[in-house]
Amino acid sequence: MPYRAPIDAYMRLLRDVVGYDRVAGTERFSEATPDMVAAILGEAGKLCEEVLAPLQRSGDLDPARLENGVVRTSKGFAEGYKAMAEGGWIATSAPEEFGGMGLPLTVTTCVNDMVGAACLSLQLNPLMTQGQIDALEHHASDDLRNLYLPKLISGEWAGTMNLTEPQAGSDVGALSSKAVPNGDGTYAITGQKIYISWGDNDFTENVCHLVLARLPDGVPGTKGISLFLVPKLIPDENGKPGVANDLHVVSLEHKMGLHGSPTCVMQYDGAKGWLVGEPHDGMRAMFTMMNNARLGVGVQGVSVAEGALQHALAYAQERKQGRTPDGTIIGHADVRRMLATMRAETFAARAIALSLAVAIDTGNATGDAEWKARAALLTPITKAFGTETGIKVADMGIQVHGGMGFIEETGAAQYLRDVRVTAIYEGTNGIQAMDLVGRKMMDGGEAAFALLDEIEAGAEAARANLPDLAEPVWQAAESLRETTEALLAREMPDRFGGALPYLRGFARVLGGHFHLRAAMAAPDSADARLAAFYILRMLPEHAGLLAEARSEVSALANLSTEDLVA
Amino acid sequence: MPYRAPIDAYMRLLRDVVGYDRVAGTERFSEATPDMVAAILGEAGKLCEEVLAPLQRSGDLDPARLENGVVRTSKGFAEGYKAMAEGGWIATSAPEEFGGMGLPLTVTTCVNDMVGAACLSLQLNPLMTQGQIDALEHHASDDLRNLYLPKLISGEWAGTMNLTEPQAGSDVGALSSKAVPNGDGTYAITGQKIYISWGDNDFTENVCHLVLARLPDGVPGTKGISLFLVPKLIPDENGKPGVANDLHVVSLEHKMGLHGSPTCVMQYDGAKGWLVGEPHDGMRAMFTMMNNARLGVGVQGVSVAEGALQHALAYAQERKQGRTPDGTIIGHADVRRMLATMRAETFAARAIALSLAVAIDTGNATGDAEWKARAALLTPITKAFGTETGIKVADMGIQVHGGMGFIEETGAAQYLRDVRVTAIYEGTNGIQAMDLVGRKMMDGGEAAFALLDEIEAGAEAARANLPDLAEPVWQAAESLRETTEALLAREMPDRFGGALPYLRGFARVLGGHFHLRAAMAAPDSADARLAAFYILRMLPEHAGLLAEARSEVSALANLSTEDLVA
Question: Top EC class per UniProt (chains A, B) (predicted)?
């Protein structure tokens, strides 16, 4: 499966659509000029094209497996990982004082996007490490930071996140893992964790687990949870991996996809751990790491969309069938409709994700509360819409292949099987939607309305040059504004039944906004033609989504469980 | 995976929604009274619940395989098939003179729906046989009918359809298989066919292939194609399976799903075949069989939707998580939204399929051209919307399961993997949509407008009792009428770019019509509450779909292949 890194597309998005100039204009990121960014992305793209993309099928056909308690990874993954680590690509935004490049998260987001398109199951490994670096950087003691961060950033060690237990999935507060003080400042961690992505591997010196557990005096629920760093091998006095900790991989899950990524059941039997942050304050540290991880997972959806699109496009251009101008199926209107939809949707999801990264970077560099609020608002939208886009585009990729799409050898089905979990992990998309209409609207909708003002101002500015595109975007933003007001007028539990359609409608409108910006920047370009396709054909979907979000609560509430049976 | 046959739901649909009384009111089907139908469905349902549903996972975990050129089927499939055959369930609509029950296709559709929900990969076997029976009944000579039909109807022999070749998929006319007269009335068939579902098995005495091939004087394209019956074992003078024919299974495909159904590459090396119908007239016979097969495949989507819904509903009622009234996830608004959507969509797709079956039965029993036109119109809608519903509902079923949905052991993923191909085989859904706006509108839209008149009359009649539901259905029908007129005003190739959104919008409106009928029949029932959910929350989607269908052709046509690259 050849993959071509879309460097030009990133650079156009950064320049014309998501306002990367704001990031490069801050003191903190002043060295990350567009030219520098282009050079960096070019290097990362080459690695993805030449080294990582060839591993995609290997991960599927030669799944990670557990042998005598040790994870054996897919053929070629060790070499691929080492190439990433040697190139410095594990965590490009990590702080320079610990050996990182200190690049804007916007740049790392582009890198993650390319790595995920090339080989999603391997990409998940550094994504977990990036989350751990975030959490340690902001919450761990200096000793822990000095010991662990350089190893994680260099890729010598890998990081994992351990939240879920069999009875505690979306309801993290129900977890029962325990942490007992050892008396020497360390803790003995006991419990079982499930769904641990990359819980072990055979290519890093050490694997470091961030584990949520409850101290003896921790109250029930989320307020009694603390966060611990629990290494597979306990570092010795020189900081080298020493004796084995009391933890092991019980089993690997047999999954629909992502076969190259070992999903572990982890058992901790009094394993030695170090507290990260304050006692009982584990959820705060977890959220630090989860917010960026939600951007990361949303981008996984974008990655797969790009990969599936390139794959389908190549097939459509070579598959001879029917009476079309060049004899290939790309001449069929419905095939072309699918490919155009895939491209337009990928553009929208990527623009939303990069605009979130820009908001995070700007907020971090300036401390501006409005940018932080913008980032908070865009996080659930990016996660849910990005992953739904990955699923939708991968599904269309199968359809473009016709009968060959159902045959595993082509690889089209793998994209769908791999990406399906992204709508579930890191907070299901339903939870993202509840977060959007709940927590993210506790400001009375201020952040949402500020974004809508921006969308409408953009549409106003486009009226003179592109009236046919500006008007539908403006109208859609108005409709989203009315729906937002209608939802805000409802009490919290009543908002939830329409939360996901609302999130989808919001993303649909945002997509129109970004497509319009691209069209304004270059009215005779491919981007402008794609924008016309999106705005005239795909944007109208917002009406149905917002109508569903606004519809009377009773339509759902009146249905009893018995009503659903038959 | 337990399965409960929804007999009451079928009977309410037949009585209140799709007008089965019309079928039972014909002389031909006068014995198929509602009481008789209920008894028959009850028997079939028992078989599905007790014998077939337990085979669903077996087909996935123990795929059909090729051993020394012979197909070995999944564990338990032989027993399951024999139970179907002994019960007379292979082809319940087959003519009585050849041993069939002569039941309306509407009843067979319900039976197929249940068998497919219980075990889709096994159900595909008799579905192929049903198609072959159709083709032979209408096009074969008396000798062939007398020899083959009783064996096929009893299930002693199985039937297959051989259309596709590597270079001839959707473009059937490109096929290159050859048929040369042997001089004794038979023909020597040579060529390779791919994607042959159930091309062989180890539980029927014989396998009979219907093969499209070209006679020496056949012109290129579809007009030079003839249809041949080519048995695996050539019947001897007593009609018993005799010597092996010159054909064999080359290999089985490694597919995303439907692992229990062997998808064969078939090789014919001068195999002995018998002409079915007139020389060069093979496509006509093929269409006889394909039209009913399209209903059959649409129903496969409904089957999987029902199976996935029941499976997710059971999980949601037992999975403890979060603070809900009974502690299970079914109390979460977004989970309930998904389950309600799954139920409402399954109802709509099933009602559309059964209304098509009623139209076919009524047309066949009365010869009425309007019913035949109605059936022709509904065929592509049933196929495409039914299969898309299966995919959508199975996907939501995974999401209801959360993390467990991605783990194969739960079976949730299997529904999606199995059903995915239904949007591709038997004419891709894109081809169905082209058929709808092309061939099926060559009457100037007469059949579509007649159906719209009926929908609007139904809405008018509902205004007094259910004004809040009647008005949106009426409005949606008006919008569909306008879009239909707009499409008709376009030349043929220009219609195709909006064909699939149009088909989806048509199905969305039809779903509203049938939900409204159910609500009218019992305004305080579960069906009425489900109708309110569908009409108020899901029907608004038609607006975006129809806007896409109506949008300027240029939005798609302006995009070049290069524009799609990045």
Answer: oxidoreductase
